[in-house]
Amino acid sequence: MTGQPVPVTLRVNGRREVGRVEPRVTLAEFLREELGLTGTHVGCEQGVCGACTVVVDGAAVRSCLMFAVQAEGCDVETVEGLGRDGLHPLQQAFWDAQAVQCGFCTPGFLMTALVALRERTDWDRTALRERLGGNLCRCTGYEPIVDAVLAAAEAARNPGGEAAR
Amino acid sequence: MTGDAAAGAPYVGRRVRRSEDPTLLVGRGRFVDDVTERRQAHVAFVRSPIASGRITHVDTAAALASPEVVAVFTAEDLAPYCGGWRGLLAWPGMVAGLQTPLAAGVVRHVGEPVVLVAATSRAAAEDAAELVVVDYDELPPVLDPVAALADGSPLVHEELGTNLCFGSPFGSGDVDAAFAAADRVVEVTVQTGRHTAVALEMRGVLASFDRQERTLTVRVSTQAPQMLQTLYARELGLPENSVRVLTEHVGGAFGMKAFVYPDEMAVVTAATLVDRPLKWTQDRYEALQSDTQARDERVTASLALAADGRILGLRSDVVSDAGAWSMYPRGCVTEGVQVATIMPGPYRVPAYAADLRVVYTNKTPLAVYRAVGHPPAILVMELLMDEAARALGLPADEIRRRNLLRPDDLPYTSATGNVYDSGSHLESLEQAVVGLGPDDLAARREEAAGRGCLLGVGYAAFVELSAPGAMFYGAKGAPITAHDQVEVTVQPDGSVTVVLGTPGQGQGLHTTAAQVVADSLGVRLEDVRVLSGDTAVAPHGSGVWASRSAVVSAGAASAAAVEVRRRLLLLAAHMLEADPADLEMTEGQVGVRGIPSTRLPVRDIAQVAYWRTHQLPPQMEVGLGAVGSYSGPPYTFNNGTHVAVVEVERATGLVRVVDYLVVEDCGVLINPGIVDGQIRGGVTQGLGGALLEHVIHDEIGQPQTSTMLDYLVPTTVDVPDIRIEHIETPAPSTSLGTKGVGEAGTAGAPAAIHCAVNDALAHGGAAGVWRQPIRPADVLEALGGAATA
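ok -> structure tokens follow
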């Protein structure tokens, strides 16, 4: 059942991290338990809810479905890496739009949206809803989350415009 | 967006950003599993794999032999320390079995905890749990609540001698005469799906016990920390001042986290027996098998009508599937009672007779979930209204218009004794009709038909009971009551600390309390910091439930702030040598009305109150902190009308909600953004109930929905943007005029969506669907019936 701990080296939020983990330890567990980065939340461990979404080498990934050892050599971004000098524009947009209620799903949504906005900033509402469809929220009814991501996209398109303020 | 307004304008009524959010947005929330104690051991449970059976043998030796295992406990091990409880309330004739932290001798549903294993890691605990051997004699499970009432049915609880938990009539008036005089009678039989809350943060406990001090500290994901403090103390024989319950962030609850769960109680009890903290974090399989479930009502109801569409009388027969236990301490009957008693809703129903039976079965316990009983009640009533409209050839809005309460009917006492003291019952319908834009409906139906879809419109006019007093629980013996307390303190520098008795689970209660307090003290919102979540220092509260916090918690915050303001003005009067009655307080300053030169900053008054008390007369009251309390009225009722527009795809049976309008009247709005968030989230859960959510058991009681791929909750693509309009009829009975709104969206949505689907089917010549969730197969079956008719 168990395996001997093996070394793992990866970059998390730009910083090199070294750990020894059993092969069965998920990336989510490694981030939370070994590194103390508890902003990555575990909502189902079944790959469905999206709360544990982090960015691995640029892709939005469910950290509950990936073993830490699979992230060997990878560049991992978590919610703690956003906006270390004040709120990231996405976080600010979520705040402005009241897109947070209990906040448990929020980090996962932020990381999914981060990748979506790196891909493009001209999302229309329907396509963005599809894109965010793998993240579940039980509180907000989603509309303010969609509003927030669209506002952040608008701000990214027009850095000096109204939405960027 | 940020609620900017003229300086000095009240904060109440403004959509200010939530103070809770920055911490959560940067990933620094502290949910139970985010907190680690040194030397904490992790708990895993061995749970029942069968719905009903006797435990014949438990062998824990192999688990205990594992070097990583800290302790293993069975029911017998914990029995001397926690004797268990009965989820009884003083409803006449209600019966409930004795529940213990771990199943004692008998298992009554899949997922019931049987053995607790604690080890040095969660993985080790789960490994060791697999080494525990439990033998069962399987018994035939009780799964159908109607069959469960027949003579000779197996019994869920042998000791009770019956599967009937509670049965009662409700209502008033001469129903037989009403039906005898009716021109038309319509009847519906509906079954609603079994739901569960699916809070994204699963339940969890981190418990530690100091054997020398005999103090217990429990960090737990709950809606009611003081209730748990009382019950932990009671169950474990500890004084309440030795029990501390911590709740920082809670990732959703929706009624489901308002109980003493056996697994949580097992962890807490075990923590008093081992010399290290114990942590248990639920996984989703456990959640879908052990979190309280809801709805699952079978209702047959009929409506007696005059030829002009006036309601003469209503009958209903309600069977509520309680599952295996009446959960402690709220019990399992509130859902059924509210199905029966809320059903007349916002309509003039002169005579009503309901018959309720709440029945034990071998399923996960049924209990309160957002909007408790309202969704089935409103669903049944609105389906009856639409059937009546079809029978009488009236439009759906017109039959409602002829029966909704009008302003001159108020205050109105319903046939079940509920008093509606204010509201906009008819007005909300009229506003919804205007908002829907009925003029282009025919064109929209035609356009949808071109795409192979049937378009349907559904109305749900409703009332929602909110902020209840002690009637449901406190007066029936449970430690759950109507009050809340809040402490407000002006610090020496003029900043303000507010400590809530009741913490929230995402509702933004810190923000709304800050708005109320800032207005009362005339200070800036950013000068107010709100804390909650530690029963060792917070004042008492009854928890978050039943849409009560905007009335009760905010009311207590206001009461505390008014007292602190009184003290500030007394001090200022002394410092300014003025009469307190002549003083005014604005923008963080106190001055004599009409004399601008007398402005005294609150901070200067606070300095004197704390550090320069020698400047005050010796008899003067010093200190600027006060605990305010608020006990609500017996209840309030918000009201409103929902309109759903759906498209039913003929080829697939898929239902899409394409437009949704809510006209809501919850009295005074403290923060419209937060209110809208409650409504939107509520409608979304109601949509889930109407179309998606269903706990399914097979014929031997095995749950078939143990993952989130099987139990479907709405996603971004299932939920439309929701239009929300407000009518503000202040509550005459509450201190702030608020009525509470947390559940209103969930109350109305299943009915509006269901009525819209049946309207669409009617336009396709098909009969309706009479169950929830409405699956594509149900729609296709209805359409197929139409094709072959």
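Chain A has two domains: 6-80, 89-157.
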